[in-house]
Amino acid sequence: MIRYILKRLLQFIPSLILITFLGFLLNDYAPIDPAELLAMRTREGGNPLTAQQHETILREQRHKLGLDLPMFYFSINANYECDTLERIPNRTERETLKKLNEEYRNWPAVSDYYKEIKDFATYIPTMYNSMVNIYDKIKIDSTYQPEITDIRPFITPDNIDRLKALKEKSVQLVSLENEIEIENLFNEIDSLAKPMVSPLAYRKMTTNLRDAFAAVKISSPTSILYPTFSFHTDNRYHRWLFGDGESNLGVLRGDFGTSYTSGQKVGKIIASHIGFTLLFSLGGILLAYLISIPLGVYAAVKKNSWFDRVSSVVLFLLYSMPSFWLATLLLVCFANPDTLYWFETSGLKPAQGYPVDANIFQKLWISLPYIVLPLICFTYSSLAFLSRTLRVSVLENIKQDYITTARAKGLPQNKVVWRHAFRNSLLPMITVLANVFPYAIGGSVILETVFTLPGMGFETYRAILGQDYPVIMAMLTLTAVLTIIGLLVQDILYALADPRISYNRKK
């Protein structure tokens, strides 16, 4: 048995590697840029940021998360592709440059074009702010002379409006990859810039933009004939597994990173919520087994009796009820001041908390009105399924020859049923038991949301709404790992329940 367990553990290593890799891919290809999400939440409630300040925050967040690193230990690209695109902080800009490079296959020119766009997008807002300041000073003091004396004739309301429009166009330019759209935007920029004569440097910059884009369109047809191989010792997947050696320890050490919404370590979030999930999910499974085992065995022994028929109808009715519907029905009937207010609607304890001197039993008694309804909902569906599964399995075994032999020897009915028929009917129950392990982490998202229980199911629901991908990926990864552990425990229990199953190698 020990040799078999060690063998299975070794076989699980490739599965664990694949699980972590899939978790990394899901996290890496999330539909939202985590750096952008963190940057948005960093400036919530604060003053509006300039484009340069926003880009600086993006760059810092990407570097902190390791998103400016290559994806894997090696990369295979066409020789025209750029392997440093991840250093660009803005996701829209990265995708635009990637599409331009894929179309024209001329990365040096695309890079120069991007620099011209950034210079233009930086200069125009600066010029706009400067002109507005000068215009405001001239309105206060008509004799005011700016440092650049030949700029005063151009400080007019019309030119200020044109610069404001140019500032908006400069933001649009960085997201365009279609040649027609780019040329049309260039024409709009020229029409806005035309009344503003040469002393302003932006006239030269618009010309530089056109020249830079013209250079992009000159592509080399031989640029795709051979691939390039690159190796990266420091990459995102390596940090996902092993951490960065400082703030992040990596998945293999139980560190799934930091929550995007709360800023807490994901491990601490799981530790603070998993206890409530274990209370209800494992408590519900335990109650389901304790009730379903005698119920299923008795229904099999008393086949076609009134008990068997009534229990079958009731259990099938319970099994057909959606959990959220039954939870809502219980709340309306037994946690409603207009009907029966026996239980509480949400939470696990009174809003004012427990008394200071309350012991564990007193706390449990105080929390009982909060626990009963959720525990019923966590139990009933498993109860119905398990009891019907055990009934069918006992009925199959009770017809076997060894049961007839045991009865012929004069063994009591209870010993025949529980020692022989029941033990050999446990295999389907053990199969269901393997699902308890992942369920203990994931809990029930619907039930925990309906009853507002602070468990992992409700936390997963909040993480999905808040696009908190580290928490979501941690839940998926842990659920997959516990599924593998459940399968191993299932195999071990098979051998313990049925002597015919042995994993020892025959001599």
Walk me through what this model shows.
The chain has 507 residues and is mainly alpha-helical. Among the domains are: 74-231, no CATH class; 274-467, MetI-like (MetI-like fold, Orthogonal Bundle). The protein is built from 20 helices and two strands. It has a two-stranded antiparallel sheet with strand order 1-2. Helix 7 (179-193) packs antiparallel against helix 8 and helix 11 (306-320) packs across helix 13. The chain is elongated. The model has no long low-confidence stretch (mean pLDDT 80).
Task: Fill in the keyword field for this structure.
two-stranded antiparallel sheet; single chain; elongated; 2 strands; 507 residues; MetI-like fold; 65% helix; mainly alpha
Total of helices: 20
Major β-sheet strand ordering: 1-2
Name of the level-1 CATH class of the domain at 274-467: Mainly Alpha
Distance between the termini: 14 Å
- Strand percentage lies at under 5%
CATH architecture of the domain at 274-467: Orthogonal Bundle
Number of strands: 2
Describe the largest sheet: 2 strands, antiparallel
What topology does this entry show?
Elements: H1 2-28, H2 34-42, H3 51-65, E1 74-78, H4 91-104, H5 107-140, H6 157-173, H7 179-193, H8 202-216, E2 227-231, H9 236-242, H10 266-301, H11 306-320, H12 323-334, H13 360-398, H14 401-408, H15 413-421, H16 427-433, H17 436-442, H18 445-450, H19 456-465, H20 469-497
Antiparallel strand pairs: 1-2
Q: Care to give the gist of this entry?
A:
The protein has 507 residues and is an all-alpha fold. It contains 20 helices and two strands.
